[in-house]
Design brief:
The protein has four helices and no strands. With 65 residues, the protein is an all-alpha fold.
Amino acid sequence: MTFNRSGLGNLYKRESDPNVKERLLLVLKVEVDGKIPAHVAEELHRSRTWASDWLARVIKKESTD
């Protein structure tokens, strides 16, 4: 799985579950825009632990694909 703006952006726009949209936005901002996970977590009013846990899941999933 490769992360690109158009692919993640399309997924984000089509998603109806707000929790999934929030996680997609996290991945989009960190992996595509190159933002620091702690800063994105703050923007989303989430903890750094939440952000790092979700990013670890995404990276793990990416490595198994």
